[in-house]
Amino acid sequence: MDYTSIFTLMRAEVTLTAILVFVFLYDLMAGERARRRFSAVVCCLMVVQVVVNLVPAAGGELFGGMFCHTPMDGIVKSMLSVGALIVFLQSDTWLRREDTRHKQGEFYILTLSTLLGMYFMIGAGNFLLFFIGLELASVPMACLVAFDKYKRYSAEAGAKYILCALFSSGLMLYGISFLYGTTGTLYFGDMAARIDGSPLQVMALVFFLSGLGFKISLVPFHLWTADAYQGAPTNVTAYLSVVSKGAAAFVLLTVLVKVFAPMTEQWQTLLWIVTVSSITVANLFAIRQKDLKRFMAFSSISQAGYIMLAVIGGSAIGMTSLVFYVLVYMAANLAVFGVLSAVEQHSGGRVSLEDYNGFSRTNPRLALLMTLALFSLAGIPPFAGFFSKFFVFAAAFSGGFHLLVFIALVNTVVSLYYYLLIVKAMYIMPGDAPIAAFRSDRYTRVSLALCMAGVLLLGIVSAVYDGINAFAFGL
């Protein structure tokens, strides 16, 4: 066995596993003084992880095709690692609280475990490894959602998440069993040659889409989302809304292209319905929300619908558009959650829309950062969100889905209205008891600076999109 090839192709998984073991031992043996540097140590390790992921390496297979690596996989894994790093930076103040500082190690271990599961999902060339990765990503995530277990909403959110996760995993496993029964293999490459669109395989496709639809929060598999986002700690919500969703969307497109290519017409029809439902339903419900975490839950459902435009587009152009959209969405969404988390920690947990009335008068810089991030989510030029939406629209349009693009454009106008509701509250509405002025910690400031760099620069620096495109066409 060539261990050099194993490390080269699985360097992301090997490095992250080593980081997990180190964090576990650090949490077990570090004294009180060393634990004060826990956040700094973990963040430095995550920087190393990102650098390792970005080291160029040719694609290849391991273990008879069970594990596959492509250059695009390395880009996506790096992107997810950056998302986790930003969440860790934003979590420092929260993890230093009296009720959470003794659980700091648990938070890092659970989060890194979910990230490792996503890595295996992305690199899977076999449905067995894919399902193991899915469960490794799901079970620790349920623990994270219920991290504040003594708070009623958090415990309720954890229960809803794990029940829905179990149901969706069962559906997906049932679909995989149909595929195995009709093709006689679990390997993606071998299975694609034996797909013929039989009724059992159509049912398997529906079950598979249902299982990943839960992870991505697509309608009608979204019912857990608002309650889980509201009940989970804000930093966990940020991670769940960005990193988990991005990994699942990338895996969905990969499996559809590799395995279900002979059934393209069927899965495009299913996704057409799901995309329209997700964007429209989420927009209608978002308008009515007063709690900002629930608001961001429906915003994430709507954004998932836009991501599906790239999936429907298929091919390398769709892959490029999807990865770029998730990257931009990650920067903007984490910026919003970074502000929400900072405000929550310094104001005693205020997260309602009314609480942000007059916010620009007391905290003008944070209000400006949040406004720019919301503009990017809404797709307003010249921010990166405008270009990311343009690319996913172009991917769907090039695939012939003109009506779908028109419906998505109409919904973009609706989303602009509810994003501006927050801007209106911060800049126009008078506040009887506005959030007091405060200075966020240095970790949060660094994370917000990274997010703002993404929001402002990703749209105008064409090298980013061109680089992703080059990797996509090299698949």
Automatic annotation (TrEMBL):
Span of domain NADH:quinone oxidoreductase/Mrp antiporter transmembrane: 124-414
Keyword Lipoprotein in annotation: no
Subcellular location: Cell membrane; Endomembrane system; Membrane
Protein name, UniProt field: NADH-quinone oxidoreductase subunit N
Catalytic function, reaction form: a quinone + NADH + 5 H(+)(in) = a quinol + NAD(+) + 4 H(+)(out)
Coiled coil start-end: none
Quaternary structure and partners: NDH-1 is composed of 14 different subunits. Subunits NuoA, H, J, K, L, M, N constitute the membrane sector of the complex.
Source organism: Alistipes shahii
Membrane-spanning ranges: 6-26, 38-55, 75-95, 107-122, 128-147, 159-180, 200-224, 236-257, 269-288, 295-317, 323-343, 364-384, 390-420, 446-465
Record keywords: Cell membrane, Membrane, NAD, Quinone, Translocase, Transmembrane, Transmembrane helix, Transport
One Pfam family here: Proton_antipo_M
Known function: NDH-1 shuttles electrons from NADH, via FMN and iron-sulfur (Fe-S) centers, to quinones in the respiratory chain. The immediate electron acceptor for the enzyme in this species is believed to be a menaquinone. Couples the redox reaction to proton translocation (for every two electrons transferred, four hydrogen ions are translocated across the cytoplasmic membrane), and thus conserves the redox energy in a proton gradient.
NCBIfam families attached to this UniProt entry: NDH_I_N
EC number assigned by the record: 7.1.1.-
GO cellular component: endomembrane system; plasma membrane
Keyword NAD: yes
GO biological process, one term: ATP synthesis coupled electron transport
Topology in the lipid bilayer: Multi-pass membrane protein
Primary enzyme class: translocase
InterPro entries in UniProt: NADH-Q_OxRdtase_suN/2 (IPR010096), ND/Mrp_TM (IPR001750)
Gene name in the database record: nuoN
Chief place where the protein resides: membrane
Molecular function GO labels: NADH dehydrogenase (quinone) (non-electrogenic) activity; NADH dehydrogenase (ubiquinone) activity; quinone binding
Family: Belongs to the complex I subunit 2 family.
